[in-house]
Amino acid sequence: MQHTANDIDVFQIERSLWIAEAKINMSVYDFPFSQLMDCRHGRFGLDEVTAIARFGAVTDYDSLYLELLEEGVRLVHSPEQHRLCSELPLWYPLLEGLTPESWWFDKPPDAKTAGELAGWPLFLKGSRQTSRHKASLSIIHNEDEYDAAIASYATDHMLHWQQIVIRRFARLRKVPADMGQRIPASFEFRTFWWHGELVGAGPYFAEYARYEWSEEEKVSALQLAEEAARRIALPFLVVDVAQQADGQWIVIEVNDAQESGFTGILALSLWQRMVELERARVSEA
Questions:
Q1: Per-residue pLDDT reduced to its tens digit, 225-247
Q2: Buried b / exposed e across 34-67, counting CB within 10 Å, b at 16+?
């Protein structure tokens, strides 16, 4: 989707953080700020404010960023920062060794080359995202499946414009869940980081299954996620981590937290923690 500045409501929560919001009608993403937090819409004489975007994924972040900037609203991530945490070819070099080995191409290689590169099965995706986590376009077992997936990528409206990414397949700890045609649920967790500080963490597949980590697993997972957040070093970041079948933790991907759903995270606690950290950060400045 693509918003304009006129679609977006800009307000301050708890006299601290500024939010630039447009509801997208998804319960895992939208948050009732006005019902649960103190919200103020006046700029109080400020010529410019720095705001966190909460209007979902947009087709042209750069143009909307500039449009909002003309209105005195600077989003917390510049277009360059947004691309860094949204596109695998940009963030992968910073996380090499923490995440499955990956290769990307403007033009997809033939099936034989892909198999020789990553082995079978392999994981296939666009440089920015999958197509609604559809398994048949992501987990590829042989050359025939690869050729069929690449043909589909060429016509898929979410994938045709992206670079093709081939990832070495990671055998993840499974979580029982009926996922239909989606990628199987795994022992995966989403973590949110505000200026390098953890503000929320929860099970990625909470919508489909109930699972939780032990204290030992939590410590290991968060140590990995924190290292990834340190390396990326952006203001508002999501790091998704998962446990492999052998017990080791890996980074699945990172994302711009402005666009990311809360999954199994209590959103109110996340925003309250961010307010606390922002107040402390401002007082120390």
A1: 999 999 999 999 999 999 999 99
A2: eeebebeeeeeeeeebebbbbbbbbeebeebbeb
Which pTM value belongs to this model? Answer: 0.95
* Pair 35, 270: CB distance under 8 Å: no
- Per-residue pLDDT of 244-280, as tens digits, reads 999 999 999 999 999 999 999 999 999 999 999 999 9
Which residues lie across from 73 on neighbouring strands? Answer: 49
